[in-house]
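ugh ok so i messed up the first submission bc i forgot one of the chains. this is the corrected input, ALL of the components this time, i swear. 560 residues overall. if the numbers dont match what u have on ur side tell me asap before i send this to the collaborators (the ones from the other lab, u know who)
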Amino acid sequence: MKTAIVGIGLIGGSFALALRDHGLSDEILGVDQNIDHARRALELGLVDRVTPLEEAIDQADLIVLAIPVGAIPMLSIRILNKIRADQVIMEMGSTKQELCEIISMHPRRGRLVATHPMWGTEYSGPEAALPGAFTGRTVVIAEPEASDPQARELVENIYRTIGMPIKYMEAEEHDTHTAYISHISHITSFALALTVLEKERETSHIFDLAGAGFESTVRLAKSSPDTWLPIFMQNKYNVLEVLREHIHQLQVFRRMLERDDTAGLRATMEKANSIRKILE
Amino acid sequence: MKTAIVGIGLIGGSFALALRDHGLSDEILGVDQNIDHARRALELGLVDRVTPLEEAIDQADLIVLAIPVGAIPMLSIRILNKIRADQVIMEMGSTKQELCEIISMHPRRGRLVATHPMWGTEYSGPEAALPGAFTGRTVVIAEPEASDPQARELVENIYRTIGMPIKYMEAEEHDTHTAYISHISHITSFALALTVLEKERETSHIFDLAGAGFESTVRLAKSSPDTWLPIFMQNKYNVLEVLREHIHQLQVFRRMLERDDTAGLRATMEKANSIRKILE
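and heres the new structure output, hopefully the right one now
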């Protein structure tokens, strides 16, 4: 099988490594608007060749989209317009509703499989690609019935071989869930970084004290706006709902602290502790 | 040197391991109100003997307090009342202002060294103790001039031998800084856990999707209320100030998202990205 990966950054590059490690592709073509990224991906051995998009569409059995979500719907349509009946498009974006709506009436909709592997780091670009990244992580396949069974099987086999449990969801359900377990974490981190940076203007050595707890809550604030701005925009209503709830929780905590409501604070923290059983 | 560690949990236990690893103490006595913790600390080899507090005060050259901050001021006074002129008390709490004020007029104030090693995890108890925990982390010595030079030197030598850079600060300065780089991270995590747990009541499989980003922002929500409630209460005014700023940052973000202010969102995220140069 010949695979073309469009967008050879953190996700596309890591996926290329996974394909190689599991012998899933005879040749990997790389497509990237950013010439430096394309050259670096080649140097790093993530892809075998760098080609223009047209050539990739012409030659690849599987075309993988690993680009910012804002660009996925239009590019999906453009590629669907051109592919042959035996080709498959697999996209790896973090939002699903807008894409699935845009492509819903396309006569070749079935050739696209909408997926979201639940892995990422705060870094981006081909240098950020990691071997073994996806193994053990869950992958969502959104609107599975909208894809042709043969196309879906191809993609499912790839993810299963990489060692990823598959969950099936509707696009709407997916976007609600990811707002809660991924998108809000990023907003919280961005806001926390800004809170602390506001303070830094006054005092310089504050950060010598930063321990592991601070690092872990704030590390997502290093994430690229190119990746995350379109995710927040596409998932705006879900993100706003979660953000409202999160701000509410912080306000409740603040009011309890203001009133020295130690019983309330303790109950709140104990309730939050039950996240243990979910994480472990 | 004979050392007594009062509170053989995450911090006290890890400190005991550090003393052993660096040959800093001939014998380590353990004191803990919780009989199970004391027994477990002995089984784990964290301490050589478990003794009542009185015996520890009588025998130890160095008495280390590693208990919740709410209990530190009173216990410090009680021990200061009893110690001989050559003994040293070292406390390892996360807040300093209340303690330093309470003990400020004690005629033996100089025998106590107020320290805060900038390390911790979300776990507690003797089982949570880790070897090598403190090495490479900064330690704050608060109000260094209030301690006798000989007492301070003893403590400084221990921390230097463990490999911890030392920062000197006034108590007030310490509590402001830690509110920003430690206490707020915990509140954010608690609130994030509650936000997501609110949602979980409706949908069960949401957590199968939780990736590494979620885990890292929410892991501090597993922290013990016994440790953190007294920290928040003792550092109430600083924590409230940071909390107000953090809620404000989240509200600004929300308003920009509501208004599709992509330029503002991008600028905000780019500004937050500058936390990189601080973390790396």
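quick check: Residues 171-200 of chain A form the longest helix (30 residues). that seems consistent at least. The two ends of chain A are 38 Å apart (CA to CA).
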